[in-house]
Design goal:
mainly alpha, 208 residues, 76% helix
Length: 208
């Protein structure tokens, strides 16, 4: 029987890794770019943006709320099972080493991304620079995810990833019986968000 997560098998293995950092920061950054008056991601509102952007922001917020819930469940699972926490740490340590062996320094990319995130939080940043910085941050995110995906496809990492996935899911289900439902919701929201982002890119708001 195939796992219900076979289409997004890396999702569990990534949940507390660097990809999670990119996911949790990148979506709020998009919200901040759409609403430059927001001082922080949590302060973003949808009242002063066009309907299309408002819908996108709402999807982003729902996605991040579900993602954070899953991360909290995973954190509790690792807290309750030190062996699982160690397995996760070792996996991500080996993943970073594999990425570096393949020519990508994940730590430098994360530092660069964090620097851009800090700049985007500045309410005084001109809109043109904000948009340019957002594009650069998105490109950095895509480069990181591509390098991570390549590393995860190596035989040793694939085997370790499958073991971590199984152990993580088992631990999360012990903590919260709604884990499967939450993953289904997350996948559904990700699909909606991808479509909304493509639509927004094809039909950008007309400058006033």
């Amino acid at each position: 029987m195939k796992s219900m997560f076979s289409l997004r098998r890396s999702q569990v293995a990534r949940l507390a890794g660097a990809a999670a950092l990119f996911a949790c920061v990148a979506l709020p950054l998009q919200a901040m770019a759409a609403s430059p008056s927001a001082a922080t991601p949590t302060e973003t509102t949808t009242q002063s943006v066009p309907p299309q952007q408002s819908s996108l922001l709402q999807l982003q917020q729902r996605y991040m709320a579900t993602y954070r819930t899953l991360m909290q469940i995973k954190a509790k699972a690792e807290h309750d099972d030190p062996a699982l926490a160690k397995q996760s740490r070792l996996y991500h340590k080996e993943l970073f080493a594999t990425m570096k062996k393949n020519g990508t320094d994940p730590q430098k990319m994360i530092a660069s991304f964090n620097s851009m995130a800090a700049k985007l939080k500045d309410k005084r940043l001109p809109q043109a620079k904000r948009q340019a910085l957002l594009v650069k941050a998105h490109e950095e995110q895509m480069r990181f995810l591509a390098a991570e995906h390549k590393a995860m496809q190596e035989p040793a990492m694939r085997a370790a990833g499958k073991k971590l996935e199984a152990a993580t899911l088992a631990g999360m289900r012990k903590v919260d019986s709604n884990t499967n439902t939450l993953f289904k919701k997350l996948n559904a929201l990700k699909g909606q968000l991808d479509k909304a982002q493509v639509k927004a890119a094809q039909h950008p708001p007309t400058p006033k």
